[in-house]
Amino acid sequence: MWLQRPVSVQGVMEHALQHRERVGVQDFVLLEDFRSEAAFIDNLKKRFHENIIYTYIGNVLISVNPYKNLPIYTEEKTKLYFQKAFFEAPPH
Question: How far apart are CA 46 and CA 67, in angstroms?
Answer without folding.
Answer: 16
